Amino acid sequence: MQKERSANKSSSTPTLSVAFLRAKKDLQDYEEIPGITIEYQSSNPMQINLKVKPSEGYYKNGIFKFKCEIPEDYPNRAPEFKCIPKIYHPNIDLEGHVCLNILRNDWKPSLSLQLVFAGILHLFLQPNPNDPLNKDAANDLAKYPLDFKKNVERAMMGGYVKDEQFDKVLEGNFNTAHTRYYY
Question: Hey, which end of the chain has fewer CB within 10 Å, N or C?
Fold first, then answer.
């Protein structure tokens, strides 16, 4: 009889997955990174909204939002990030997929969400043309850095680069009269 009670008792208590507990711990241990804002519901650390606001570089003054999904087998598998606005970036494709080595081949269970957040910020401070998802942007960055800079500015204002229109991601009201591009 006692075995039946303990079996019934344990089945009525919700069990939290290892992924849930680890994600919750990673978020509790998170130390603020300048330029990064995270939002999540404490009841569900498996879905995180990330906001990146670079303070320097090509993407300065932009606001880039990401959705992060923590997989059920986290930390054995890397979290999945998707950039919400359509942006012009060598390491982020037009669908928002992110190319960051620690989210792919270099993922280890010992890595934390904090490190991934810092890695995503780093992509905006130092875009990498050698590991591209957007080959056009990577080619421009590698071969024509001045054109790349103009393309980033145009795209961040919600303009077109080649035949592709991008989402406006600039923070605040900027006087952009001096950065008009006609093609």
Answer: N
